[in-house]
Write a structure and sequence with these properties.
Layout: E1 2-10, E2 13-22, E3 28-34, H1 37-40, E4 42-46, E5 59-60, E6 66-70, H2 76-84, H3 88-95, E7 102-109, E8 125-132, E9 137-142, H4 148-161, E10 170-175, H5 179-190, E11 196-199, H6 202-217, E12 230-231, E13 236-237, E14 241-244, H7 245-252, H8 264-272, H9 283-289, H10 291-312, H11 314-325, H12 335-349, E15 352-353, H13 390-398, E16 405-408, E17 419-421, E18 426-429, H14 435-468
Parallel strand pairs: 5-15, 7-11, 9-10, 11-14
Antiparallel strand pairs: 1-2, 2-3, 4-6, 7-8, 8-9, 12-13, 16-18, 17-18
Helix pairs in contact: 2-12, 4-10, 7-11, 8-10, 9-10, 12-14, 13-14
């Protein structure tokens, strides 16, 4: 699975695509795809049919002429086209379904006046807990030393708390002389050893707090990136996956049917039967008066996310979406990016390309799905219908797609045999499968094949269970 794709240039000429991906061992590997500047260094631009530079092999998705515009700043559409021209042998390792080594982090901050705000990050980071899910190891970075007997007790308490899972956890504790040393070490050394980093409310709190705390401590957070580049408003390191497990559960979990809230304590209790460690007084009291329990509390929070992942396995859905869509794992949360890449490939196969426009027209609003107003009161014989894959089925049925739309039906007008009309009078070309219908048909067929395989496996499991009785 691809993590990131970086376009690199040298002396104002394209050099290569630097592609990071997860290898068979769950580590980050890199593939360098050399580029020829004269051949690959362009983006598509609309042009007039009379333009001598108009391309003879490609048009836009809506039938306009295009020409090549030299550029070292390749957009996502052009990058997809280049990847499509890679050989299957070269592309195969990048698209393998390899689960990365997962690390879970959780921070505890100084509490002075109320819960610390991540945006201002005014209070010190007191400890950072890091769980290595593969090796069952908990590493805690903190600002106060502990005796060996204390560390033995914390490790023993962790294993006792999670004993029903049958795992043996090891504790590694590192005390730092200052917060600066601790945070600097975390960014400069520890992050580089973690291919995939997750945690509960990680992006909106822990990561944001650490990034903003770096600004106060005069630490450049870009030292955590192998290329020295941080991406997006969340300032995530390039070529490394950092994903919030809270967002994963909110978006894709189907195991927990009813979610009263999304607090770690509640989700952990429902998923694993265990919650956060309880304590008397405030977190500040715990730090000042029971520091050993404070570290134990921090460690347990991280381990809980490990077992939530084991129980729900929702992160696997995230990874599978990346692999099936053949997009960077860092882009999976964007349905627009996913669809853009899927459509880019199918259009390209049909001799059509996308043109990135800088001056986008003013945003328009369209009426969404119809919602019937309910009739208030208590009713008998109420029936609820749930249509499987309703929207994809409608798209397939009416051949909906940007390029297949023809017109709005006028009064007394008749539509042709190779056309199909929706209930609101929109007419679509039905003479051949549209791009969206083709994409959905492919995904649906693959889904159906996978479900059959799953049912066959479950039947085999049932047979084995009966044979053991």
């Amino acid at each position: 699975m691809i993590i990131d794709i970086q376009v690199r240039s040298e002396h104002d000429k394209l050099k290569d695509l630097y592609i990071s991906y997860f290898d068979k061992n769950g580590d980050i590997a890199f593939h360098t795809l050399p580029l020829n500047h004269d051949r690959d260094g362009f983006v598509w631009e609309e042009c007039a049919p009379i333009d001598k530079r108009a391309n003879k092999n490609f048009i836009t998705w809506d039938g306009k002429c295009v020409r090549r515009m030299p550029s070292t700043r390749l957009n996502k559409y052009r990058i997809e086209e280049i990847l499509m021209l890679m050989s299957e042998e070269e592309l195969a390792p990048l698209l393998e379904f390899n689960i990365p080594k997962k690390f879970i982090i959780d921070i505890e901050t100084e509490v002075i006046d109320g819960f610390p705000d991540a945006e201002t990050a005014a209070n010190r980071v007191l400890s950072i807990s890091i769980v290595n899910s593969t090796d069952k190891k908990v590493t805690v970075l903190a600002l106060r030393p502990l005796e060996k007997t204390d560390l033995t007790k914390i490790e023993s308490d962790i294993n006792k708390y999670f004993e029903k899972f049958g795992d043996t956890w090891k504790l590694n504790y590192l005390a730092f002389e200052s917060e600066y040393d601790m945070v600097y070490s975390f960014f400069s050394k520890f992050i580089h050893k973690m291919p995939c980093i997750t945690g509960w409310n990680l992006i909106n709190y822990d990561w944001q707090y650490l990034i903003n705390r770096c600004a106060r401590l005069k630490i450049d957070p870009a030292i955590c990136s192998s290329t020295g580049v941080l991406i997006g408003k969340n300032m995530l390191p390039q070529h490394r996956l950092i994903v919030d497990y809270l967002e994963i559960v909110q978006k894709w979990d189907r195991v927990i049917k009813i979610k009263e809230n999304f607090k770690l304590d509640y989700i952990a209790e429902v998923a694993t039967g265990l919650g956060k460690i309880k304590y008397n007084g405030s977190l500040r009291d715990l730090y000042e008066q029971e520091f050993v329990k404070f570290i134990y509390y921090n460690a347990v929070d991280s381990v809980l996310v490990h077992y939530i992942d084991k129980k729900l396995n929702t992160l696997a859905t995230f990874f599978k979406l990346a692999q099936v869509s053949r997009i960077e794992t860092n882009r999976v949360f964007s349905p627009v990016w996913t669809l853009d890449c899927l459509m880019t490939r199918e259009f390209f196969n049909r001799g059509c390309v996308f043109v990135a426009k800088e001056n986008v027209a003013e945003q328009q609003h369209f009426e969404g799905a119809y919602v019937k107003e309910p009739v208030h009161g208590l009713h008998e014989w109420v029936t609820c219908y749930d249509f499987a894959s309703l929207y994809p089925t409608i798209i397939r049925q009416f051949n909906l797609s940007p390029e297949s739309f023809k017109r709005k039906l006028q009064t007394d007008e008749k539509f042709m045999e190779d056309e199909i009309m929706t209930s609101n009078g929109n007419i679509f070309d039905d003479s051949k499968d549209s791009v969206l219908r083709t994409i959905i048909n492919d995904l649906y067929a693959r889904r159906k094949k996978t479900k059959k395989k799953m049912l066959d496996i479950n039947k085999e499991i049932d047979v084995l269970f009966k044979a053991l009785k």
